[in-house]
């Protein structure tokens, strides 16, 4: 049987393996496990020249996704071996280390590359790809570390980046996954909101923007969560939602529809400059509300660079958060205390990272055994070391840390990483056997 006589489905499967499996294609790159877009384009061009059936098969394979770059690793939402989000007074090296850790190491695409991606995206739009991964950055914030208005430079790149987002905003009933790298300005924020608003089938979103936290606060763009949904449209519930942009402001005043859209997420991350949850509403109350409506979470990070103190004390009863699958949790907020932590029912929590501007023991402590499967905890806040871990419901003999010459009862302003001694935990009153821990890939 000749190649032209093979069933179309078989040809499509063969080409799909050739285009998507680097071990079959014999990639010469150092990263043998990565699928490099330039390799895929060249291979697709060659395969199209065989015959008419091969052209149709290649188009069928490529319509499933449009990937203009391949990250060195999966987007990270975990709470061990990781970096804190840079603050407004961080150094250039801290910013660089943060983005190296999160696999954003390449400079922004050239104007030529942006134009090539835009042309390819226009051709593939007719196929309605189900997965899009594209680097549409127009500025190198971190490498240049410039805090001037970015739109004053490389205007052609900004225009091309904007056209790419305009193309992505066209309704696509097949689009399920979107991994987007952008350089945020306020106009770009509006376009990202439009993309989310017009793609109701989207279930997997990753947005990375290396806008520095040290950027002038007057020019910081704001993304409004309320504008990412339409009132009369039914949206699919998301599996993963990640926005990592240390210089971005988030408006979450009217976020009911957003919380409903993300209620099925297993991985959730907001690493941003600020979250405006409403007048006199502290961010940790909004976080509690989010967690209370996200029972499927396996890994979560909420990192906020700046937060205004609440003027009026919130006397409403905090919501209890049932998180039976949560294994990784990072909380980087202005004010974290036992009133938040003690309402997290997370029997599988193993890795916990907390950074707070205020002492976390200012409002009591969690009951003993609150986190029965905790393996490690990192706490960065003012105050006594002993009080920090007591707040988690841990006695001194139940954890160990590597700080030498620091008194437990003495004040220490800095990060402390401790490992929990598991053989001490079964003595906690009322502890129940923990269910099987899910595997975390992100």
Q: How would you portray this structure in words?
A:
This protein has 442 residues and is of the alpha/beta class. It folds into 2 domains: 3-62, no CATH class; 69-372, no CATH class. 28% of the residues lie in helices and 18% in strands. The protein has 13 helices and 15 strands. It has helices spanning 8-20, 22-25, 37-48, 52-62, 92-101, 111-124, 141-144, 155-168, 186-198, 256-261, 283-292, 338-341, 385-391, and strands at 65-67, 131-135, 177-181, 204-208, 222-224, 240-251, 267-276, 299-304, 321-322, 328-333, 344-345, 351-356, 376-381, 399-401, 414-420. The strands form 2 sheets. Strands 1, 2, 3, 4, 5, 6, 7, 8, 10, 12, 13, 14 and 15 form a 13-stranded mixed β-sheet that branches. Strands 9-11 form a two-stranded parallel sheet. Helix 6 (111-124) packs parallel to helix 8 (155-168).
SSE order and pairing:
Elements: H1 8-20, H2 22-25, H3 37-48, H4 52-62, E1 65-67, H5 92-101, H6 111-124, E2 131-135, H7 141-144, H8 155-168, E3 177-181, H9 186-198, E4 204-208, E5 222-224, E6 240-251, H10 256-261, E7 267-276, H11 283-292, E8 299-304, E9 321-322, E10 328-333, H12 338-341, E11 344-345, E12 351-356, E13 376-381, H13 385-391, E14 399-401, E15 414-420
Helix pairs in contact: 1-3, 1-4, 6-8, 8-9
């Amino acid at each position: 049987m000749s190649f032209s006589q093979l069933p179309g489905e078989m040809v499509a499967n063969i080409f799909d393996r050739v285009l998507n499996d680097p071990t079959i294609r014999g990639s010469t790159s150092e990263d043998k496990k990565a699928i490099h877009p330039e390799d895929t384009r060249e291979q697709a061009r060659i395969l199209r020249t065989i015959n008419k059936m091969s052209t149709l098969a290649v188009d069928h394979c490529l319509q499933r996704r449009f990937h203009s770059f391949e990250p060195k690793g999966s987007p990270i939402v975990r709470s061990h071996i990781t970096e804190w989000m840079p603050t407004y007074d961080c150094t250039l090296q801290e910013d660089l280390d943060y983005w190296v850790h999160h696999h954003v190491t390449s400079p922004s695409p050239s104007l030529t590359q942006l134009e090539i991606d835009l042309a390819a995206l226009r051709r593939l739009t007719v196929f309605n790809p189900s997965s899009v991964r594209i680097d549409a950055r127009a500025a190198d914030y971190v490498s240049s570390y410039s805090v001037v208005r970015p739109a004053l430079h490389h205007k052609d790149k900004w225009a091309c980046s904007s056209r790419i987002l305009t193309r992505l905003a066209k309704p696509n009933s097949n689009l399920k996954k979107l991994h987007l790298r952008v350089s945020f300005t306020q106009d770009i924020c509006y376009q990202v909101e439009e993309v989310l608003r017009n793609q109701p089938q989207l279930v997997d979103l990753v947005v990375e923007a290396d806008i520095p936290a040290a950027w002038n606060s007057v020019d910081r763009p704001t993304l409004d969560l309320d504008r990412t949904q339409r009132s009369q449209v039914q949206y699919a519930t998301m599996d993963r939602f990640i926005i990592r942009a240390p210089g971005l402001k988030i408006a979450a005043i009217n976020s009911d529809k957003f919380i409903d859209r993300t209620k099925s997420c297993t991985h959730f991350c907001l690493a941003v400059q600020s979250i405006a949850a409403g007048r006199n509403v502290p961010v940790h109350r909004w976080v509690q509300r989010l967690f209370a409506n996200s029972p499927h979470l396996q890994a979560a990070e909420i990192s906020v660079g700046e937060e205004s103190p609440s003027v009026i004390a919130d006397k409403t009863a905090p919501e209890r958060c049932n998180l039976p699958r949560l294994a990784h949790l990072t909380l980087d907020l202005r004010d974290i205390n036992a009133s938040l932590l003690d309402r997290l029912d997370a029997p599988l929590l193993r890795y916990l990272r907390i950074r707070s501007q205020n002492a976390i023991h200012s409002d009591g402590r969690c009951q003993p055994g609150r986190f029965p499967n905790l393996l490690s905890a990192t706490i960065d806040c003012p105050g006594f070391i002993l009080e920090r871990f007591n707040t988690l419901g841990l006695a001194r003999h139940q954890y160990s840390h590597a700080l030498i010459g620091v008194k437990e009862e003495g004040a220490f302003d800095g990060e402390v990483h401790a490992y929990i001694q598991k053989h001490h935990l079964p003595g906690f009153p009322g502890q129940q056997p923990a269910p099987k821990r899910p595997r975390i890939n992100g």
